[in-house]
Amino acid sequence: MSAHDDKIHYTGGYFHMKGVALSILVMGLSLAGVIIAYVMFGHIGPSFSAERINVQQAELRDEYGLPKHEVIKNQSILLTPPSLRDINQNTTG
User: Fold this and answer.
1) What distances in angstroms separate CA 79 from CA 9, 29, 53, 72, one per listed residue?
2) How far apart are CA 37 and CA 44, in angstroms?
3) 71, 54 Cβ separation under 8 angstroms
4) The whole model's pTM is what?
5) N or C: which end of the chain has fewer CB within 10 A?
C-alpha cells in the first residue's frame, strides 16, 4: 500500500448529500404550505383589495369628518392605478 491509500477514508457514500436533501425537503414543505393556503383561502384577486380600500377610506372619512366619497364599482377603473385614472386616454405619448 502506498501512503496515499492510508489517507482515503470510506464514509459510506452520500454523506455530503445531506445538505441537498435537507434543502429539497424545505422547498417541498414550503410549496406544500403555499398550496394548502391557496386551497384554504382561494384566489383573492384585485376585487378584495379594492373592497378593502373602500372600507378603509370610509372609516378614515368618518374618523376625520371628511365628506362621503363615491364608491367605484367598475372593475376596469379599479384595475387602473389611481394616479393614472384622470389621464386622458386619447393623449399620445
Assistant:
1) 64, 34, 13, 11
2) 11
3) yes
4) 0.43
5) C
